[in-house]
UniProtKB/TrEMBL annotation:
<dbReference type="InterPro" id="IPR029068">
    <property type="entry name" value="Glyas_Bleomycin-R_OHBP_Dase"/>
</dbReference>
<dbReference type="Pfam" id="PF00903">
    <property type="entry name" value="Glyoxalase"/>
</dbReference>
<dbReference type="GO" id="GO:0046872">
    <property type="term" value="F:metal ion binding"/>
</dbReference>
<dbReference type="InterPro" id="IPR037523">
    <property type="entry name" value="VOC_core"/>
</dbReference>
<dbReference type="InterPro" id="IPR004360">
    <property type="entry name" value="Glyas_Fos-R_dOase_dom"/>
</dbReference>
<protein>
    <recommendedName>
        <fullName>VOC domain-containing protein</fullName>
    </recommendedName>
</protein>
<feature type="domain" description="VOC">
    <location>
        <begin position="4"/>
        <end position="126"/>
    </location>
</feature>
<dbReference type="InterPro" id="IPR051332">
    <property type="entry name" value="Fosfomycin_Res_Enzymes"/>
</dbReference>
<dbReference type="InterPro" id="IPR037478">
    <property type="entry name" value="YwkD-like_dom"/>
</dbReference>
<keyword id="KW-0479">Metal-binding</keyword>
Length: 126
């Protein structure tokens, strides 16, 4: 019944800072951007492969729980073909990236970095 994940939605604390990160640093393509005055909210649709990331801004959003094991979305993961070149590309843009590790179950390499709101983002090598 279910086909694929269509999008992931992220509520950000600083819309301009997050827009810059996702479009300039991660180089995701803007599909659509609107301001919804009745909600005092921006909505930015970004292309990522065959899916989308939606960035939302709302007045006074609550803080994210600080533990990665808290209920809710744990992290977003991006598949990459060459993890070392992707890590170097991010670091050249000033993004702090954790050391590359190996998944003991799949033997695939992975690592994490964070967006401007400290949302964990993972890179996972094909």
């Amino acid at each position: 019944m279910l086909g694929k994940i269509h999008h992931a939605a992220i509520i950000v604390s600083n819309y301009e800072k997050s827009k810059e990160f996702y479009t300039k640093v991660l180089e995701l393509e803007i599909i659509n951007e609107i301001y919804r005055a009745e909600r005092q909210s921006y909505k930015l649709d970004l292309a990522i492969g065959n899916a989308q990331i939606e960035l939302f801004s709302f007045p006074e959003p609550p803080e994210r729980p600080d533990k990665p094991e808290a209920r809710g979305l744990r992290h977003l993961c991006f598949e990459v073909s060459d993890i070392e070149s992707t890590v170097n590309w991010l670091m050249d843009k000033g993004v702090e990236v954790e050391p590359i590790r190996v998944d003991p179950i799949t033997d695939k390499r992975f690592t994490f970095f964070r967006d401007p709101d400290e949302l964990p983002l993972e890179l996972y090598e094909k």
